[in-house]
Amino acid sequence: METVFGARLYALVFIEHVNRRVHLAGVTAHPTGDWVVQQARNLVMDLGERMATVKFLIHDRDIKFTAAFDQVFLSQGCRIIRTPIRAPQANAICERWIGSARRECLDRLLILGERHCRAVLRTYADHYN
């Protein structure tokens, strides 16, 4: 998504497939592998004992999803599933949520910056949940 000042922002979300609960991990202008790993660690800490119910992690083949990112979930007993190249239907639940968030929320607002985007997406995720 882009701000009114032209900066591009990226959001990382995790979705529990069993109940479709959305967890907004973070919003940044410069996503790196280290940032993504830290967001994964934060999610594991936030979920606490509920992490034991997580069986799989499905993600695409973006280079930001490093071996260290996968290791965070492997250490919790999760199996990593990488979607095929250019196959958004392989992770349809997440793709659908992202599309809905854009159409119903982000396309209707002028986003000012990271903090504003994070607040808007958190409010939308709370409404969705």
Tally of distinct domains: 1
Can you tell me the CATH class?
A: Alpha Beta
| Total helical elements | 4
- How large is the share of residues in beta strands? 15-25%
Which structural class matches the secondary elements? alpha+beta
Widest sheet: strand ordering = 1-2
How would you describe this protein?
- The protein starts with 9 loop residues before the first strand and ends with a helix.
- The protein has a single domain (10-128), classed as Nucleotidyltransferase, domain 5.
- The chain is 40% helix and 18% strand.
- The model has no long low-confidence stretch (mean pLDDT 96).
- The chain has 129 residues and is an alpha+beta fold.
- It has four helices and four strands, in the order E-E-H-E-H-E-H-H.
- It has helices at residues 33-47, 67-74, 92-104, 114-128, and strands at 10-16, 21-28, 56-59, 79-82.
- It has a two-stranded antiparallel sheet with strand order 1-2. It has a two-stranded parallel ribbon with strand order 3-4.
- The protein is globular and about 40 Å long.
- Helix 1 packs parallel to helix 2 (67-74).
